[in-house]
Fold:
Amino acid sequence: MKTILDRLELTEQEFGNRPAVDDGSVCLTYTELVRKAKGIAGILCDQIRVQEPVAILAEKSTATLSCMYGVAYAGGFYVSVNPEQPPERIRKILEVLESRIVVVDEARREQLAASGYAGKVLYLEQLYQDADESHEGADEKLAAIRGQLTGENPLYGVFTSGSTGNPKGIVVAHKSVLDFIGHFTQIFGIGKEDIIGNQAPFDFDVSVKDLYSAMFTGAEVVLIPREFFSTPPRLLDYLCDKNVTVLVWAVSALCIVSGLKGLKYKVPEKVRIIMFSGEVMPIKHLSMWQAALPNTEFVNLYGPSEITCNCTYYRIHRTYEKTEKLPIGGAFPGRIVFLMDDEGKIVTEPGVSGEICCAGESLAIGYYNNPEQTAKQFIMYDLNGENTRVYKTGDLAAYGTDGELYFAGRGDFQIKHMGHRIELEEIETNFMALDGVERAVCLFDEGKNRIVCWYLGEIEPKEVRIRLKEKVPAYMVPGRITRVDEMPYNKNGKIDRAYFRSLIAAK
Structure:
């Protein structure tokens, strides 16, 4: 099996009449999905080159997914662009891609124009409709393209923020997804009877686990409209009505439901497993979910987009105290995960933090049109006597006395304050353990040489300070504590730290 398309067609042969994807308005079987994808590919194959990116600016839907797979059939790789992003960021993404073609839905026509894009525009609705028509010679053209494709060809690109202010496009190959999803579905027992509730937008690689786990097994993926997450009762009704059994969600999405007391309204009792990633899961929110679904399995996943979704996982077997940390677990099969110190040496001693590094299967191809950044993050390293390609995550972790691996924050979350080396993530953990605090974010204001913190919750800032002093040393208590009415999130559903950094810069 060379490409994802081989896997899709095997599943279609076995489960053709079973539902593949449901967006709440349209449901496609596997046979219908393949037919739509090939029809769209028949249109695209005369307009794009093999390994060329095609940006898709549209809300997630059955039509969008058909187009993504259609790009793959046409030999290109797809880049989903979230319509929630401002025109300036869309412009930068399209500049990095040097996009000759952008697929857009009609509702985003003006948004694309505002980005200044001057290349060829194809409309999603028209592509989706025309895919049902016969395209003379398309089958032969697609077969010829298929013969050129290997597992090393790019399948998709996702964009993350870059230190220079320009977004970085991470490109992932077919083989990387084949390898990872093969392990993922087997480890967590995902099968044809499962219904996967997709939370993540398609430009966030959490969605890769939803879409391709379904493709691999004949399961159904239900696309949950974004607006449902602002009204938990509507969301929970949807999960129950659709009989969802598997959730692979961002931490923030789970916290929105539990924080707004959605689980007191209704519990999605058919959900058998919940996997989460993207941020550190606050224990108080995990405990709410565990109490509501005592028979459901919970799994902590870790890993950046550059290694194809996740490199470690930890099955949660008990409840935790509010100040405890969750392990990030052990490596998926085919991966090697280790810690590296500042001198490039491997760290094994408990309590000593190092940068998380990953080698083995499923590393990304690199950053599109950015060889310098690729060379910086994807290095060659002498691992067990072999010169091995390794991705340096920029995240810190340390082994506990129990032998488990614990996330210790971003490398840039570590500060030196009042003569002490401090992990801001440790302050946040203790902050969120306080009764009356829902979420919190801590940063360091270098100009005023102080730790600052914003939080969402009912408790007053004065009381927060008093209680925090009981949990951390005085030098770790923020110099300024501010309560906010809502917590802003970035496009990937994580707390928007850049927004809070801008508040510091504006002072």
About this structure: The first helix runs from residue 4 to 15. The chain has a mean pLDDT of 92. The two ends are 57 Å apart (CA to CA).
